[in-house]
Design brief:
Elements (H helix, E strand, L loop, with lengths): L1 H12 L25 E2 L6 E2 L7 E5 L2 H6 L5 H5 L5 E4 L9 E4 L10 E2 L2 E4 L2 E2 L6 E2 L11 E5 L4 H4 L6 E5 L9 E8 L3 E8 L7 E11 L8 E15 L2 E16 L6 H6 L6 H5 L3 E16 L4 E17 L2 E18 L5 E21 L2 E26 L2 E18 L6 E17 L3 E12 L3 H5 L14 E14 L4 E13 L2 E4 L8 E4 L2 E16 L2 E16 L1 E3 L4 E3 L11 E10 L4 E9 L2 E2 L7 E2 L2 E9 L3 E4 L2 E10 L7 E3 L9 E3 L4 E10 L1
Parallel strand pairs: 7-11
Antiparallel strand pairs: 1-2, 3-10, 4-5, 6-9, 7-8, 10-11, 12-13, 12-42, 13-14, 14-15, 15-16, 16-17, 17-18, 18-19, 19-20, 20-21, 21-22, 22-23, 23-24, 24-25, 25-26, 26-29, 27-28, 29-30, 30-33, 31-32, 33-34, 34-37, 35-36, 37-39, 38-39, 39-42, 40-41
Length: 679
């Protein structure tokens, strides 16, 4: 075993001795420190990163990274970004678990409390819930994270913002084919076509994935496709059109386990999971278009989008059938070229859910027990003003949201309506030091309960629970900068966030539905630091550290025999410490990358009776720079070894019934593939 570990270390560092050998510059740089300002697209307005008064992290993936990284989860794409935590569950039934500075902690499936965008189109519905299955990480080319509350920009569920883009750089490679195989029956085929259309842009992609899974009952069959385009109309006008489609006819869920069961046999699924054939059958599509034009007064952007989703979800004892139609309109007008910069906008969202629930006959629908129509309407107006005073810049914004939930119970009389109103102001300062920027920002946030949280009633009736929205007040300060000579950039931030009316999930029986209730207040306090360093053309290093102390400051949980005071307890599912680092080395013969991730101890429940142990994983990747086939065509083979030292650890399912907080992750596993690139 020691010899094996030593071999892994040598493999990880292979090429290091030749990293400084002389060779012609290579355009496929493994990692490049971003020195020039970039535009932040995670807001409705154009804001240059060097002028932002809030904490934002950006990453642009190189062609080498796209061609040689077997990305099945956003965890691989976002590793090392400060403030952001992505946990891959190694199966697709529930999707990645995503939090930003602790926001999103309560989600047992999907994403809560975070605004998500794909190619400028919201993935977050009017009720604040996002579903990430439609995102194929293999095609994600840029990532942006706003790490503080952003309700000034996006309204509900904006404890942070994660914006992703699949739009290639222009010009791009005409065709890219990629095949990946690996442990646990993995097979994934990717194809992307980006024709040269002159002033116009078009890129289309598709992928198909099959996987048996690390654990019992975690088979997956998943087809995804999408396209982005930019049609130039002349005189700074054009139309951007983007679409995506996901068809996942099978995504088995192995469920969570108790601590001892996860330790003794991490690959197992409980018999109840098998008896009810727990999993998902999902089809989702979305289409959006944005017309942009410089109208003299400013730049006008008019966006319209629609989403359709069909879900059949067998869970223990019942089957959920959901048909969703949703969409929205957004209009903005801004002047970002003048000394005083401003922007105004209006937005409307609509969500229409046909929700039915049946008793389960071995995973098949039986007797109808719930049939209701749930609608969510959101209307908002917002604005932003930025005024410079020399090197000092003052940035202020405000947004007003009206949000209404309605339920029509077709089996009874338990109809319901809940309305939320919120005014979300923000103000920030930034100071330009040339190669550095100091900033401070104060903002507020709104997080209303989702339709799932409102409709899952402990009494089993239709209508809605009586829940309140979470209110967030946050401040942050920090600095970003770069040292050009050693090609190093850095980012440091400190934050404090206060949350009232905290929503806490709970279950009343094993494998039963998850319910929610408001449980007092919480505080998120922390610090983040990251750096990117390119000491030589052939060597790149990036690292980040996040400290988050998220704890209840008020609240109780009433049990059948006693009441638990939550004051001082840590929020479950939020590790206090998180560290990530990646080193990439290039030689003429091989490219090598090592990624190390440490996740600190976290609690599984609000009562803090169970802990999820800390863990450290090491992932290794080797690839060839590219084997020429014909002029303009090359093949790039790659090999990845994940969790190289076979560490046993678990992801968390917060507040699961019966102490089943543990979702075991895969041990050592490999992935191999090759990319064919045609220019």
């Amino acid at each position: 075993m020691r010899a094996f570990h030593l071999l892994l270390c040598v493999l990880a560092l292979f090429g290091g001795s030749a990293a400084y050998a002389q060779a012609p510059p290579d355009t496929s740089v493994a990692m490049r420190v971003q020195m020039a300002p970039v535009e932040v697209t995670a807001t409705p307005f154009q804001i240059a990163s060097e002028a932002a008064s809030f904490a934002v992290a950006t990453r642009t993936r190189t062609d080498l990274d796209l061609n040689t990284t077997p990305s099945l989860s956003l965890e691989q794409v976002t590793a090392g970004l400060p403030g952001l935590s992505v946990q891959s569950r190694t199966h697709f039934a529930l999707g990645d678990r995503i939090t930003v500075r602790g926001f999103g902690w309560r989600a047992q499936f999907g994403v809560r409390g975070i605004q998500m965008l794909l190619n400028g189109i919201p993935l977050t519905m009017a009720d604040g819930q996002s579903v990430v299955h439609i995102i194929d990480p293999s095609f994600v080319r840029s990532v942006e994270v706003l790490r503080g509350p952003a309700s000034t920009f996006w309204g509900n569920a904006s404890g942070g913002v994660l914006a992703l883009s699949t739009q290639p750089q222009h010009p791009a490679h005409t065709v890219r084919l990629k095949e990946t195989v690996g442990s646990y029956g993995l097979s994934k085929t990717d194809v992307q076509v980006t024709p040269d259309l002159g002033a116009h842009q078009l890129s289309a992609y598709a992928s198909y994935l099959t996987q048996d899974g690390f654990r019992q009952h975690s088979d997956t069959r998943l087809l995804r496709t999408g396209a982005t385009s930019d049609i130039a109309l002349g005189n700074d006008a054009g139309i951007r059109i983007t679409g995506a489609l996901q068809h996942m006819p099978r995504a088995d869920s192995p469920g969570s386990l108790k601590r001892e069961a996860a330790r003794q046999n991490p690959g197992q699924a409980r018999q109840t999971i098998l008896d009810f054939d727990v999993g998902k059958d999902v089809t989702q599509g979305q289409l959006g278009a944005t017309y942009y034009d410089d109208v003299g007064l400013g730049v006008l952007n008019a966006t319209a989008y629609g989403v359709a989703r069909d879900l059949q979800n067998p869970i223990p004892f019942s089957v959920i059938d959901l048909h969703r139609n949703a969409g929205g309109l957004r209009f903005t007008l801004e002047d970002d070229a003048s000394r005083v910069r401003w922007g105004v906008g209006v937005e409307g969202k609509r969500q229409h859910d046909e929700r039915r629930e049946f008793t389960s006959n071995g995973g098949r629908p039986d007797s109808l027990i719930l049939d209701q129509l749930e609608t969510v309407d959101n209307a908002a107006a917002f604005g932003r003003l930025a005024v410079p005073f020399g090197r000092l810049r003052i940035d202020a914004g405000v947004r007003y949201d009206w949000l209404q939930f309605e339920a029509d119970d077709r089996l009874g009389t338990d109809d319901g309506t809940q309305t939320f109103r919120a005014l979300s102001p923000s103000i920030g300062l930034s100071f330009d030091l040339g190669t550095a920027r100091l900033f401070a920002h104060a903002s507020t946030g709104l997080e209303a309960p989702t339709t799932t949280e409102l409709s899952n009633r402990p009494d089993g009736q239709g209508g809605f629970n009586d829940l309140e929205a979470e209110d967030v007040v946050a401040v942050e300060t920090g600095a970003t900068g770069r040292w050009v000579a050693p090609r190093l950039s850095y980012d440091v931030a400190f934050f404090y966030q206060d949350v009232d009316n905290v929503l806490v999930p709970f279950q009343q029986r094993a494998f039963g539905p998850t319910f929610f209730r408001n449980q007092g207040a919480a505080r998120h306090l922390g610090a983040e630091a990251s750096l990117q360093w390119q000491p030589a053309e052939r060597l790149g290093v990036r690292a980040s550290y996040s400290y988050t102390n998220a704890e209840f400051t008020a609240g109780t949980i009433e049990g059948p025999a006693s009441t638990t005071d939550l004051d001082g307890n840590q929020l479950p599912g939020v590790p206090t410490h998180r560290l990530g680092a990646t080193a990439q080395l290039r030689t003429d013969a091989v490219h090598a990358a090592t990624t190390v991730q440490h996740v600190g101890e976290q609690y599984g429940d609000s009562e803090n009776t169970a802990t999820i142990d800390a863990y450290t994983t090491v992932d290794l990747r080797l690839s060839h720079p590219g084997l020429p086939v014909t002029a303009g065509t090359k093949v790039t083979p790659f090999l990845a070894l994940n969790n190289a030292f076979d560490v046993r650890y678990s992801d968390v399912v917060v507040n699961a019934f019966g102490g089943r907080f543990y979702e075991p992750a895969a041990g050592r596993h490999w992935r191999f593939g090759a990319t064919l690139q045609i220019d």
